[in-house]
Amino acid sequence: MIIGCLGVTLTVALFAFFGGIIYLVANSDNAPAESTPTPISADTPADTDDTDATGEADDSETEVADDPAESDTDQDVVSFGEGTHTVGEDISPGIYYADEAGDFCYFERVSGFSGEFEDVIANQIVDGRAIVEILESDAGFTSERCGEWRSQPGQIRDDPSAPFENGIYLVGGEIQPGTWRAEGGGENCYWARLTGFTSVLDNVVTNEFGNPEPVVEISESDTGFESESCGTWHRSDDS
């Protein structure tokens, strides 16, 4: 079941509910074609050859390549804070993670900066951990109460089968596929299985709102999973 509302003219797809969980807008006139999520990564140093044409070792000074073990550091992580940022100038396209997002973290991808509704490609409100993919075709990105966005997650779940709570997570790396049951949620419990993180309605495989103790089969083909106000999710031992 997909919770949502399609406009009569089909120019705007609106998906919303006002329980303080999520507000999602997808404007079909502005929404670009989907792309395969590609996190930003540092360039790999080119290989060097320390021998001359005779096969002998070259005694001249050569630049020593960085130790690969030292390349995956915070120096390689792109980060930015709240506010409005221009894509291609202030920030680069890619997948970003807000590991310490506050309550009612709000973000939006925009096609322009007029402030008009038509500029909004997609937007969302999340409590807890957030993930978004910013596309090259986006003009800008705005966020409030989301804290710092990073091109790599700062908090990685060591055990994908361990319980988890509010937020958006990667299926496979952070959440293991299988049957999951939520406990301790309320009437505003919302969950969604996702194919991507651009926050458009097409990213939602299926979702549900209002069931305080849902049971969900997360598939290996899912890219992500979102949960709001559902309490704690536990994986079935039979999965």
Q: How is the biggest beta sheet arranged?
A: 7 strands, antiparallel
Order of the strands making up the biggest sheet: 1-2-3-8-7-10-5
Arithmetic mean of pLDDT: 77
- Helix percentage: under 10%
Classify the beta-strand content into a percent band. 35-45%
| Distance between the first and last residues' Cα | 23 Å
Q: Which radius of gyration do the C-alpha atoms yield?
A: 21 Å
What are the defining features of this structure?
mainly beta; 239 residues; 2% helix; 18 strands; 1 helix
Short description:
Helices cover 2% and strands 35% of the residues. By secondary structure, it is mainly beta.
Indicate the topology.
Blueprint: E1 5-6, E2 12-16, E3 23-27, H1 68-71, E4 79-80, E5 83-86, E6 94-98, E7 105-110, E8 120-126, E9 130-134, E10 140-144, E11 149-150, E12 167-170, E13 178-184, E14 190-194, E15 204-209, E16 215-218, E17 224-228, E18 231-235
Antiparallel strand pairs: 1-2, 2-3, 3-8, 4-11, 5-10, 6-9, 7-8, 7-10, 12-17, 13-16, 13-18, 14-15, 14-17
Descriptive report:
The protein has 239 residues and is mainly beta. It has one helix spanning 68-71; strands spanning 5-6, 12-16, 23-27, 79-80, 83-86, 94-98, 105-110, 120-126, 130-134, 140-144, 149-150, 167-170, 178-184, 190-194, 204-209, 215-218, 224-228, 231-235. The longest helix has 4 residues, at 68-71. It is globular.
